[in-house]
Amino acid sequence: MSQMTRRLFYCAGALVLLTGCASQNSSDQAATPTEQAATSPGQTPASPVEYDASRVAGGFDQVRELPPGGPVPRTADGHPDLAGRYYPNRAGRMLQGGYQIDDSIMNHIAPGATREEPAVFTAEGEKYKNPPFPYGSCPVGGTPISITMQSSEHGPMELIQQPGKVWILTEFPQTIRMIPTDGRPHSTDPDPSFTGESVGRWEGDTLVVDTIGIDRRLMNFERWHPSDKQHIVERFTRTSQNYLTYDLMIEDPVVLAKPYIHATRTWTLAQNPNDLWTEYVCTANEEPTYMQKMDPQKRNEIESGTGQGGRGRGRGTQ
Q1: Cβ atoms of 179 and 196 closer than 8 Å
Q2: pLDDT confidence of 27, banded at 50, 70, 90?
Q3: Which residues neighbour 112 within 8 Å (Cβ) at sequence distance 6 or greater?
């Protein structure tokens, strides 16, 4: 029973909301190719699905926007203490698209954030757009997609802060990143990986994470592959006890005509002390001949980049 609340994101387990889940899933899938447009500031709020929340397990009728919660906690060296488990909303808990929580709580965009513009590609960059998804129906975790895709996946991000390093963990796709903050530079020629090589530094109260060496097979927003020249800058700022903001800039002189700026996202600190890490495993990749056995139409959608090919679009919307 302790995991019941966390696992309500499976729509199959909440038949009473099947219609709402299907509706939300449909809208999410339509918006997936341009995730930033789906969550851009100024978007017209969706009409809520009417239901008696008090009769739904999980206490969704009690969800409220969190107050700031007090001043920013600090470590012994005076830097903000980023440690904690955060959710991509204003409630400090798992929320799902099938439960139409008020937009003021579900909204992931930070107040006053600059409107997000679509990525602009170079002539060469057009070849990197809408790539086939090469890993069956399971998304691969990496930088920055494991964080940015939570706009649709609704999953948590956990930060662990130690002297000289910060760990960034995401539950789905399950990703572990270790960010040294001891002043070291990048390697001269880092080996490519899905998380890349990251180094961190403090700029005032903001942790700035600089990443290079991203494996070219990874995708950004499921829209384009990076070149080996891609450079990512992330900024983590804890603004109060309960709130943290996330900023992202991607530059790639081969693919992008100008740096892509991701609108500032708001994350809130988990409020339940029993809100613990859980394992979430996507298993379709375990079958070597998965793509060969797939329905031909779905396989064509994946390989051509024209559709989602049956892949899940969010734990709260599928």
Answers
A1: no
A2: very low
A3: none
Distance CA 160, CA 200 (A): 14
Report the alpha-carbon distance of residue 255 to residue 122 in Å, rounded: 6
Number of domains in the chain: 1
Q: What is the dihedral of CA 92, 156, 118, 42, to 10 degrees?
A: -20
Q: What is the pLDDT of residue 295?
A: 83
Using CB atoms within 10 Å of the CB of residue 290, give its burial: 0 to 12 exposed, 13 to 18 middle, 19+ buried.
middle
* Phi/psi at 24 (5° precision): -65, -40
Amino acid letter for position 192: P
The residues, any chain, with a CB within 8 Å of residue 214's CB and separated by 6 or more, are 142, 143, 192, 193, 194, 196, 226, 230, 232
Give the domain extent around 122: 6-304
- Judge whether 134 lies within some domain: yes
Residue 143 is predicted with a pLDDT of 97
In a domain, residue 111? The reply is yes
Give the CATH number for residue 143.
Answer: 2.40.128.20
Other beta carbons within 10 Å of 77: 7
Say if 317 falls within a structural domain.
no
Residue 314 lies in a domain: no
End-to-end C-alpha distance for the chain, whole angstroms: 22
Verdict on whether the full-model pTM lies above 0.90: no
Q: How far is CA 185 from the centre of its chain?
A: 27
Range list of H helices, 58-163: 103-106, 145-148, 150-153
Q: Which amino acid is present at 239?
A: T
